[in-house]
C-alpha cells in the first residue's frame, strides 16, 4: 500500500449531465484503469467465494441495479468500439473469447486487465492477511484517491478546457489533442466527426499491430502542407482548421486517406487492384527499403495523379530510394523535407508528373556516385540483399526477356560464397579481418535454388563453383568464371553488378 496519504489522479473534464449521466472528455483512460483495478479486487473475493464482498464491490464501484427494470447499469461505459469488451471484463474476465476482439484497443484493455490481476495476486501473496489488504486498497481508492472534477455545460466549452489544461503542462498524446480539437470545432456535427475518427483508427489498426495513428496524422498533414515536426503537428492543423466546415472536411479526408495509408503498409490491400502490378511491387520494395519518409508523397500522388502516372511515379521513386540508401549522406530529416516538399507540390497541383517531382530533388545521386557506392556496398539484412540480387537478374548481361527470380525464400534464397562461418579451408586464404570486411559485400552474395543452397554450407570454393555454375541466374552463374574467390574476385563481380544497377534504378 502506498505510504502517501492522498494520491492525485489529475483533472477529469466532463459535460452534462444528460439523463443523469456525464460524458467524459478527458480522463477516460484513468477511470478505466481504476475500474479494472477494482474489478480485479472483486474477482479475488469471488474466487474465495466471498459473495457478500463481491456484491458490495460491484454495487458500490462498478454497476448500479435499476430499481424498476432490475437491470444492471454500468457506472462507466466506453465508446462503441471498446464498450462490449470492457463490460465483459467487468463481468467475468475468464469467460471472454479473445479472438472476438482483434483490435489494438481491445488488446490494450485485455493486457491492462491481466496486469491488474497480476498485481492484485502479488499483493495477496505478500500480505499476512490478504483479505484485509484488499479491503485497505478499496478504502484507499474510495477515500484517498483525489481528482479535480471540471464540469462544462457543453462539448464546446469542455474541449476548450481540455486544451487549456494541456497548454498549462498536462502532457497528452498529439492524437488526443487533435481529436478533441476537431470534436470541438465540429459543433452540431460532432457525431459525424466522431464516426469518421473511429473509422480512421479502425482502418489503421487493421493494417498493422504497431501504433500508427500519430505517424499517419503527421504523414497525412505533410502530404498537404509540407514538412511538419511531430511537436508542431497540432499547432499547424489548428491554424488550418478554423471552422466547423473545415473540421468536418478534415475528418472526412483523414478517414478516407487512412484506407490509402493502410494499403501502403499492406501490399495485399484491395486498393492495388485498380493499378498495374508494378505499383504493388514498388510499394513492397519501398517497405523493404524501410522508406517510411516517402509515404506523404505517395499519399499525394495516389490522391492527385491518374493510374498511369502513379505507376511511372512509383517506379522512379523506388529508384530514388535505392540510390539514397546505397549512396547515403541524406539523413532521415533531409529525406523527409525532400519528400514532403514534393508532396505539397503535388497536392497543390503544381507538380503533375514524376518528371516534375524529380526536378525538385536537388540531391539525387548521379550515376557515377551511385555506381561507385554500389560497387562497395555491404548489406547486412538478408531480405534487402535478396531484393537487390533479384532485381539485378532482370537486367543481367545475356538475359533475354524479363526474368524475376521467385521472392519466396522457400524456393530461392541467399548464398554467401565466402561463408559467414569459415572452415579451415577458407581460413588458409582469408584473414579474419578481411573476411569480416567482405562476407556481406553484395559481390560475395548470390541467389540460388534453396535445395542447392542447403547442400553447400561452407564448402571450399572449388566445390561451390560447380554447383553455382548450374544456376539459372546470370550473376550467380558468373561466379564460375573466377579461379579463386578472393578480394579481387568479389570486387570485380560487384563492379559489374553496379553498372547493371545504374540501369535498373535509373532516374532519367
TrEMBL record:
Signal peptide: none
Domain GmrSD restriction endonucleases N-terminal: 5-183
Spans traversing the lipid bilayer: none
A Pfam family hit: GmrSD_N
Domain of life of the native organism: Bacteria
GmrSD restriction endonucleases C-terminal domain mapped to chain residues: 366-500
Protein name: DUF262 domain-containing protein
Amino acid at each position: 500500500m502506498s505510504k502517501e496519504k492522498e494520491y492525485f489522479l489529475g483533472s477529469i473534464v466532463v459535460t452534462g449531465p444528460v439523463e443523469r449521466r456525464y460524458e467524459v472528455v478527458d480522463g477516460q483512460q484513468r477511470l478505466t484503469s481504476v475500474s479494472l483495478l477494482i474489478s480485479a479486487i472483486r474477482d479475488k473475493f469471488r474466487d474465495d467465494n466471498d459473495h457478500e464482498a463481491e456484491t458490495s464491490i460491484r454495487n458500490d464501484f462498478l454497476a448500479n441495479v435499476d430499481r424498476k427494470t432490475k437491470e444492471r447499469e454500468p457506472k462507466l461505459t466506453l465508446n462503441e468500439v471498446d464498450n462490449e469488451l470492457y463490460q465483459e471484463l467487468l463481468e467475468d474476465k475468464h469467460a471472454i473469447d479473445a479472438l472476438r476482439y482483434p483490435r489494438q484497443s481491445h488488446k490494450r484493455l485485455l493486457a491492462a486487465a491481466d496486469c491488474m490481476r497480476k498485481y492484485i495476486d502479488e499483493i495477496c501473496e505478500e500480505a499476512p492477511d490478504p483479505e484485509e489488504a484488499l479491503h485497505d486498497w478499496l478504502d484507499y481508492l474510495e477515500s484517498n484517491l483525489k481528482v479535480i472534477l471540471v464540469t462544462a455545460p457543453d462539448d464546446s466549452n469542455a474541449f476548450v478546457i481540455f486544451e487549456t489544461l494541456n497548454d498549462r503542462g498536462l502532457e497528452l498524446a498529439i492524437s488526443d489533442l487533435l481529436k478533441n480539437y476537431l470534436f470541438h470545432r465540429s459543433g452540431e456535427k460532432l457525431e459525424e466527426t466522431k464516426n469518421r475518427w473511429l473509422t480512421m483508427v479502425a482502418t489503421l489498426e487493421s493494417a498493422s499491430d504497431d501504433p500508427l495513428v500519430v505517424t499517419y496524422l503527421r504523414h497525412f498533414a505533410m502530404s498537404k502542407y509540407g514538412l511538419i515536426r511531430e511537436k508542431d503537428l497540432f499547432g499547424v492543423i489548428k491554424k488550418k482548421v478554423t471552422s466547423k466546415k473545415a473540421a468536418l472536411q478534415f475528418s472526412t479526408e483523414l478517414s478516407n486517406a487512412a484506407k490509402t495509408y493502410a494499403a501502403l503498409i499492406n501490399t495485399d490491400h484491395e486498393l492495388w487492384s485498380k493499378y498495374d502490378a508494378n505499383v504493388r511491387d514498388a510499394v513492397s520494395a519501398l517497405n523493404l527499403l524501410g522508406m517510411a519518409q516517402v509515404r506523404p508523397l505517395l499519399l499525394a500522388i495516389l490522391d492527385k495523379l491518374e493510374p498511369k502516372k502513379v505507376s511511372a511515379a512509383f517506379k522512379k521513386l523506388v529508384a530514388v530510394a535505392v540510390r539514397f540508401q546505397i549512396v547515403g549522406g541524406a539523413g532521415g530529416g533531409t529525406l523527409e523535407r525532400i519528400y514532403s516538399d514534393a508532396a505539397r507540390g503535388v497536392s497543390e497541383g503544381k507538380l503533375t508528373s514524376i518528371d516534375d517531382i524529380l526536378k525538385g530533388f536537388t540531391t539525387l545521386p548521379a550515376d557515377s556516385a551511385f555506381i561507385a557506392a554500389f560497387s562497395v556496398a555491404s548489406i547486412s539484412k538478408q531480405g534487402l540483399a535478396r531484393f537487390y540480387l533479384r532485381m539485378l537478374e532482370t537486367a543481367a548481361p545475356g538475359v533475354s526477356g524479363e526474368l524475376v527470380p521467385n521472392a519466396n525464400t522457400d524456393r530461392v534464397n541467399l548464398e554467401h560464397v565466402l561463408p559467414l562461418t569459415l572452415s579451415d579451408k577458407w581460413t588458409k586464404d582469408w584473414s579474419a579481418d578481411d573476411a569480416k570486411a567482405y562476407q556481406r559485400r553484395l559481390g560475395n552474395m548470390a541467389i540460388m535454388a534453396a535445395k542447392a543452397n542447403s547442400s553447400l554450407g561452407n564448402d571450399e570454393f572449388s566445390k561451390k563453383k560447380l554447383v553455382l555454375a548450374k544456376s539459372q541466374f546470370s550473376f550467380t552463374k558468373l561466379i564460375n568464371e573466377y579461379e579463386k574467390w578472393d578480394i579481387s574476385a568479389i570486387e570485380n563481380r560487384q563492379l559489374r553488378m553496379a553498372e547493371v544497377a545504374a540501369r535498373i534504378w535509373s532516374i532519367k
